[in-house]
Amino acid sequence: MIGFLKKISVFSVLVISFCLIFLWAHIHKFESSARWNNSETESNLLVMSEKKSYDLLFLGASNARVLSRNSNHQKVEKSLRKSIINLAQGGGRGGVLKNYTYLSYFFKKNNSTKHIIYFLPPQSLYTNSYDQLKMDIEPFSFDFLMHSKKAGLDNRTLLNYVQSKFTHKWISKIPDKPNVKCLSSIDSIAITENIAMWSLHEKSNPAHFGEKLENIVQIIELAEEHNCKLSFVFQVNLMGENFPHLLEVKRELNKLRAVYNFETYDLSNEMIEPKFFYDHMHLNSKGAIYFSKYILRPILEN
Amino acid sequence: MLFNSIEFFFFLPTVFLLYWFVFSRNLIAQNLFIVATSYFFYGWWDWRFLSLIIFSSLVDYGIGIRMSNVTNDHRRKKLLYLSVFVNLGLLGFFKYFNFFIESFVQGFTFLGGTPNFQSLNVILPVGISFYTFQTLSYTLDVYNGKVKPTSNISAFLAFVSFFPQLVAGPIERAERFLPQFLKSRIFDQKKASDGMRQILLGLLKKILIADTCAPIVSDIFANYSDYSTPTLLYGAVLFIIQIYCDFSGYSDIAIGTGRLFGFDLLKNFDIPYFSKSTTEIWRRWHISLGNWFNSYLFIPIAKKMATKLGTSGITLGLILTFTIIGLWHGANWTFVVFGLIHGVVLSFEMLTKKARRKISKLTGQTVFSILGWATTMIIWLFTCIIFRSESLSSGTNYIVRMFTEFSIGIPKGLLSIPIVIIFGLFFLLEWLQKGKEHTFQVSNLNIGFRWSIYLSVFVLILSFGKFNNDSFIYFQF
């Protein structure tokens, strides 16, 4: 028995040493690399620095991420005449808890912003799937790992985060070209299919609503604590009136407004021209610029 | 708790150390410890359904004892029927209630009736088909005089709930497995080391091969109407690799874990994809299930029917058994048809045994073997498409599209270099298993080489594996 345990222990030490050396090399590479900007990477940690100030901070999911992708970031900054950091995550990564995790880490690094705009997808309050796994995009940081644990991300997600660093795909440099794809017309079948997909149990489970609403409250309190203005925005889309859970989430936010100080804007029907979208949910490059210039800027100026 | 989860990574060493260092001096304590840890393992998923395992176990334990006190054959039979009724009743309610109600309603509606039956919102308890069959095997073996009824409740509860094989087998028969709980276990380093190697092999199959195939298979089967022949064929091939690596990977981890605790579990897979006939594939695929049905269903039925109908009776028995094996997998007509087709093919192979032997002499053994292997794999592939599909209609549409939507090439993103490497790795693992209990039985190699293999496998899993904690496919059965 002792011999067996010795062998297992030696092998474990070997494996752990291998992992630590690999992670050390990874951290070293990350530490020595230059900071990236939001249009170059989907990662938030690669963009996040320390003690930096921004005029605006974006939270949300892919429908906010498109404001930075495809070289849109600089153009949106120019249109709004403000410096922006975009912490929204695309690819099914933009859950409410993950947004809270990134925002609190942003403040932990002594950064600041005047105004937080959370482009809130209503369905993200009804699912855990946007808050689980898919942390592969971030470089390894022990500090961020511990912070994420404290923020409440589950063990599976944290394990996925660490393990993903042993793969060669963790860093994804996204295409730097404008997204010129555009819809020719509104496709009601595609909309119905999209809504049906969101209505699946794992994507539309009321059991998650309570905990996600708590995360929203955490974000509101965090903004208050750091003296930031906070706005929740229901982003422009072509899904029409049947957007899942929009009314319920608006109602809950209105209840919270009685207690906390923040703004809500329902822009979901503000842009209905298909040429500004590459699908029914996401703005293309032209749409992102138009949106920032003619929809978002007037709101910010008011 | 899943074998490929972080929780199990801490659970296993803790239980192992306590089992050998704290509870090893007393057999009852050791068995009770197995029971407690197994219930904990199962309850991690949903503690409410523990009551089903406990209830099933106590019923069969009680019936076993009662049978030992009864000599009247009629009363013994009644006790056996009670056990069958309770176990299959639970299985029937939790697994098949809605299926039968819905099929009944559909049938009546088709005939013009308007039946008013409501299906229920029943949750399927994980592994119910596995532990139900295991505990049922006890009363059947006691009734048949193959096992003496045990009064040792701790051993019996441990036999039913032993965590490595509780939720997805191998399904052990009381005759073979229960005696292992009645004698003290002594730590065997060779056995434990081999168990660790088999666990590593299981993780490699599950995390690297099965879980890499899984998203591609899901995509192709969910959107099969968008794809053409090469992609559909590719999806089907990936699925048979996925299901094999998923299930045999689970069995490897279960058997390896069992060996760490001094138990010998039944080998569940024996390179099935090298089979030269469908009969052979069923001797090599899910061996423990095949053995169970063979002993408790096919042989008794075939014996009875053969006396009345001769060979046709055996053929009918075979088709019936395989249809039930199909249904065992789940409450869907896709599984029934899967089993039915296999029953028919096996009957055909049984009836044409002599003719096929003559053909093999004419063609030569090698050509015959290659033809046999190709035919077997084609049948397996097509029946697995039905097995994997949501419904019979989507299964048949998938197959029809394979023959009608010809084009060249597979969409980018579905075929990648890692997938090609995985294909190669899969065949290499299978090839190396020939003549061995499992592929990583490498204790004869020198230690440096051995450890290099372990470390390489570990790195391979870490670098290319999918750590999404996907559940094992057979859990749903």
Describe the secondary-structure layout.
The complex is a heterodimer of chains A (302) and B (477).
Chain A: H1 2-32, E1 53-60, H2 62-65, H3 72-80, E2 84-86, H4 96-108, E3 112-119, H5 142-151, H6 155-164, H7 188-198, H8 209-225, E4 229-234, H9 246-257, E5 263-266, H10 285-301
Parallel strand pairs in A: 1-2, 1-3, 3-4, 4-5
Helix pairs in contact in A: 3-10, 4-5, 4-8
Chain B: H1 6-21, H2 27-46, H3 50-69, H4 73-110, H5 128-143, H6 153-161, H7 163-166, H8 174-182, H9 189-222, H10 229-260, H11 278-284, H12 287-309, H13 311-329, H14 333-351, H15 353-363, H16 365-388, H17 392-404, H18 417-433, H19 447-464
Helix pairs in contact in B: 2-6, 3-4, 3-5, 3-6, 4-5, 6-8, 9-10, 9-18, 9-19, 10-16, 10-17, 12-13, 13-14, 14-16, 15-16, 16-17
Fold and architecture overview:
The complex is a heterodimer of chains A (302) and B (477). Chain A contains ten helices and five strands, in the order H-E-H-H-E-H-E-H-H-H-H-E-H-E-H. With 302 residues, chain A is α/β, with parallel strands linked by helices. Chain B folds into two domains: 182 residues, no CATH class; 274 residues, no CATH class. Chain B is built from 19 helices and no strands.
Q: Report the principal-axis shape of chain A.
A: globular
End-to-end CA span of chain A: 74 Å
E-strand count of chain A: 5
Q: In percent, how much strand structure appears in the residues of chain B? A: under 5%
- Please bin the fraction of helical residues of chain B: over 70%
In the sheet with the most strands of chain A, the strands line up as 2-1-3-4-5
User: Ranges of chain A with pLDDT <50 over ≥5 residues?
Assistant: none
Q: What is the radius of gyration of chain A?
A: 20 Å
Rounded to an integer in angstroms, the radius of gyration calculated over CA atoms of chain B is: 23 Å
Gross morphology of chain B is globular
Helical content class of chain A: 40-55%
Mean pLDDT of chain B: 88
